[in-house]
Amino acid sequence: MLELLAAAMRCLLKALSIVSLHASLRRSRQLCCQSSPAQTPFSYELMKQQYRPEVPEYFNFASDVLDRWTEVEKEGKKPKNPALWWVDGDGEEVKWSFEELGVLSRKAANVLSGACSLQCGDRVLLLLPRIPEWWLLNVACMRTGTVLIPGTQQLTAKDILYRLQKSKAKGIITDDSVASAVESVEADCQSLKFKLLVSEGHREGWLSFKDLLKNAPSDHQCATTKSQHPMAIYFTSGTTGAPKMTEHSHCSYGIGLTVSGRYWLNLTSSDIYWNTSDTGWAKAAWSIFSAWSQGACVFVHKMPQFSPPAVLESLSRYPITVFCSAPTAYRMLVQHQLPSCTFNSLRHCVSAGEPINPEVMAKWKAWTGLDIHESYGQTETVLVCGNFKGMEIKPGSMGKPSPGYDVKIIDENGNILPPGKEGEIAIKVKPTRPLFLFTCYTDDPEKTKATVRGDFYVTGDRGLMDDNGYFWFVGRADDVINSAGYRIGPFEVESALIEHPAVAESAVVSSPDPIRGEVVKAFVVLTPNYISHDPEKMMKELQDHVKKATAPYKYPRKMEFVQELPKTISGKIRRTELRQKEWRRY
Ligand SMILES: *[C@@H]1O[C@H](CO)[C@@H](O)[C@H](O)[C@H]1NC(C)=O
Ligand SMILES: *[C@@H]1O[C@H](CO)[C@@H](O)[C@H](O)[C@H]1NC(C)=O
């Protein structure tokens, strides 16, 4: 395999000398398409030393990375895996090589700059389910310099109106299921110039993507985009407040996410990488840049909704080597263990989005033999902390800072706190702001400024660093419970609860209390075998369990058994919603 990679590298360098380009561009490309070093054991310090990304003046992921992999592929210098491997579970399958992806995305780019009249810098809303066109249009937007605004299909007409008005998008690209919602609000969207329909068939007032694509020419000159010009805007779903427009430049995700691909996901061009999370989620683009920067295959399974048996079946049926899922999904998977499923190709697992309970990690490991490598990041950032492949994992910890950032725990005045002290997780932005960070909240200098305290960008998440430099998540700043002077992070209590066989899931929030100010309240979803148990006894048993599993003052004084928990579309528990209900109740 190493020989192959070395060959890929040689071929790349050859291609480089033919196409003479900006000298700095050459360096950025090395970073994206570089081969892995000799198989020496992983060293965090070495990774930090080696990681020296350079950002050229101009950068475009489509021409600078994807088209390079096409050349490597054409010369037969990379494994035969496709770039995109899509299945729908009903026997439909799409496999695109880097070359095919290149041809199709150039055609799609011609649709965007032709029939849709998009100019470099224009904004477009993309609301599609997990279909191959989602990836195609992502790349087409890079090629035309279109600023992409992805969103989920679950958006209502009101949400769509809000997004179209806020972003002043020139166009919307979606399918039949959302088309009528768009039509119901378009009269109020002055900037909207076109609607592009990706479904089969035609619809009055809409351009047909399939027709246009068929007839589009396949040669297209990729836009020359400055590294620091906007590439995408993500409306953050957030657990609080109205969605904000988080703007990222071409180099931010495009170069910044090579860290995830290489060191956290441990991907090479021989890997097949599956991320079960939905395309609607703001950070769906992470998969594109992490995987394709390394020449890995992106595997996609279109499922109407997350189904544990279907996921397990695919994981054992297809040669998936690296797997990513949200903690909620892992919680469901370990509850649905199918002994008949064996995962022969699987070699590396990661999770992101929320911390994963140590209990779930242990169960997954007992079953598959693999650790789950957690990481921490936000829509505003690339990878902030990670359990990089090869590093010792401390279950429940988000790992160590990414080499791309200087991460610290700070207090309310922006002072750095020593190990063991809880504060806010922050990234150093002075004197120089890292380029792999969002550029701003679009049109909102106030909110953008509010994210900076002293020399730091503050994440809004509380955590601490231990003596070994590992970071631990405590909770969203607003989620931390303050009971009679004790500060209690919901995650710890939830992790203690889930160790008990009766608990499938839980959400811990504060609840008002006349004496303590606030107390810990747990909303608990029981596992099927325990649903009919006496609630009083069950509560007592779980309280005793938590008192034993963690510091006794953290036990939930109040408890409510529920059928399910409110979640964001990316599967994060909406603690804010539960907490607000709780406080309104009294
Ligand atoms: C997986 O996808 C989700 C949402 O689409 C995203 O937030 C996450 O960052 C992705 N993970 C990786 C490792 O690419
Ligand atoms: C993958 O991880 C191993 C350690 O487990 C390391 O030796 C190897 O270099 C990593 N590969 C890449 C591409 O970073």
Verbal overview:
The protein is built from 19 helices and 27 strands. It is α/β, with parallel strands linked by helices and 586 residues long. Among the domains are: 57-79 and 93-252 and 273-294, ANL, N-terminal domain (Rossmann fold, 3-Layer(aba) Sandwich); 481-584, 2-Layer Sandwich (GMP Synthetase, Chain A, domain 3). Strands 1, 2, 10, 11, 12, 13, 14, 15, 16, 17, 18, 20, 21 and 22 form a 14-stranded mixed sheet that branches. It is globular. The protein starts with a helix and ends with a helix. Residues 1-31 have low confidence and may be disordered.
Quickly list its features.
19 helices, 27 strands, signal, GMP Synthetase, Chain A, domain 3, about 575 residues, alpha/beta, Rossmann fold, fatty-acyl-CoA synthase activity, binds 2-acetamido-2-deoxy-beta-D-glucopyranose, lipid metabolism, nucleotide-binding, metal ion binding, disordered N terminus
The backbone outline, from C-alpha atoms, is globular
Instruction: Work out the helix count.
Output: 19
How many beta-strand elements? 27
Q: Please give the largest β-sheet.
A: 14 strands, mixed
| Separation, N- and C-terminal Cα atoms | 64 Å
| Residue windows where pLDDT falls under 50 for at least 5 positions | 1-31
- Return Rg in Å: 24 Å
What is the percent of helical residues? Answer: 25-40%
Q: How much strand content do the residues show?
A: 15-25%
CATH topology of the domain at 57-79 and 93-252 and 273-294: Rossmann fold
CATH superfamily of the domain at 57-79 and 93-252 and 273-294: ANL, N-terminal domain
- List the ligand species: 2-acetamido-2-deoxy-beta-D-glucopyranose
The CATH first-level class of the domain at 57-79 and 93-252 and 273-294 comes to: Alpha Beta
CATH architecture identity of the domain at 57-79 and 93-252 and 273-294? 3-Layer(aba) Sandwich
The SS-based structural class is alpha/beta
> What is the mean predicted local confidence, pLDDT?
89
Signal peptide: 1-17
GO molecular function: ATP binding; fatty-acyl-CoA synthase activity; medium-chain fatty acid-CoA ligase activity; metal ion binding; propionate CoA-transferase activity
Protein name: medium-chain acyl-CoA ligase
InterPro entries: AMP-bd_C (IPR025110), AMP-bd_C_sf (IPR045851), AMP-binding_CS (IPR020845), AMP-dep_synth/lig_dom (IPR000873), ANL_N_sf (IPR042099), Mitochondrial_ACSM (IPR051087)
